[in-house]
Amino acid sequence: NFMLTQPHSVSESPGKTVTISCTRSSGGIASNYVQWYQQRPGSSPTTVIYEDNQRPSGVPDRFSGSIDSSSNSASLTISGLKTEDEADYYCQSYDSSSWVFGGGTTLTVL
Amino acid sequence: EVQLVESGGGVVRPGGSLRLSCAASGFTFDDYGMSWVRQVPGKGLEWVSGINWHGGDTDYADSVKGRFTISRHNAKNSLYLQMNSLTAADTALYYCARVDSGRFDPWGQGTLVTVSS
User: Fold this and answer.
1) How far is residue B28 from each of residues A38, B3, B76, measured CA to CA in Å?
2) What is the 3-state secondary structure of chain A?
3) Is B6 exposed, middle or buried, given 0-12, 13-18 or 19+ CB atoms closer than 10 A?
4) In 3D, which of B28, B35, B89 has the Cα closest to residue B57?
5) Each residue of A65-81: pLDDT tens digit?
6) Which of A21, A35, A49, B75 would give a disulfide with A65, using CB separation of 3.0 to 4.6 Å?
């Protein structure tokens, strides 16, 4: 099995852009799709990006996803930060009948 | 509206058993695979188990293999997780989630399992 490593926390000011990384330990990042979930305090996770870079309906286009095979990592970028974006973000992928989550990144918008 | 509602959580002693249920509504249940994901309060997400649309293919995290059993009853639009030989490490909020285009979406509100003597 592989691991997905995320920074523990990031912070940025309203209106700015932040990028959260998710590095895969083994196997190619492009070999299986990456999803990103947002979890606000006291709530269940919701999808903000699926299949590397697809946005579900209702998710603003301020959210974007990408993968980089050279660094074997995926990224979630949030532009025009709003205080409502403050939450935990988790990346997730799949391999060999096993689903794996990253450890999560706490985004603080201050 | 697509909805998932978990139940069956509670306090159980180490070594005990518990059966979680997840009632699905608002979609054709047997069109989708389903999964259980858990979260220790204040910690990250951990995938626990998954099952395909007809129940013939199941997968488990190494941490629960041999102790937990996932199943489904399509006629009842229900997903289950039988948990045996529980330990303190199994204490968590357990979510059920629909598997849709490779993602977990949506998630239920979760049911809390506490393993304590």
Assistant:
1) 25, 11, 11
2) CCCEECCCEEEECCCCCEEEEEEECCCCHHHCCCEEEEECCCCCCEEEEECCCECCCCCCCCEEEEEECCCCEEEEEECCCCHHHCEEEEEEEEECCEEEECCCEEEEEC
3) buried
4) B35
5) 999 999 999 999 999 99
6) A49
Burial class (CB in 10 A: 0-12, 13-18, 19+), A22: buried
Query: C-alpha angle B37/A74/A105, rounded to 5°?
Result: 55
d(CA A90, CA A48): 10
Question: Is B44's CB within 8 Å of A90's CB?
Answer: yes
With CA atoms as reference, the chain A residue closest to B57 would be A97
Partner residue facing B95 (CB), from A44, A47, A56: A44
- Residue A46 and residue B61: Cβ atoms within 8 Å? no
Q: What are phi and psi of A78, to 5 degrees?
A: -120, 120
DSSP state of B39: E
- Give the whole-angstrom CA distance, residue A93 versus residue A42: 24
**Using CB atoms within 10 A of its CB, is residue A49 exposed (0-12), middle (13-18) or buried (19+)?**
buried
Q: Specify whether the CB–CB gap between A36 and A102 falls below 8 A.
A: no
* Lookup: tokens for B37: 């994901």
- For the stretch B18-74, pLDDT in tens is 999 999 999 999 999 999 999 999 999 999 999 999 989 999 999 999 999 999 999
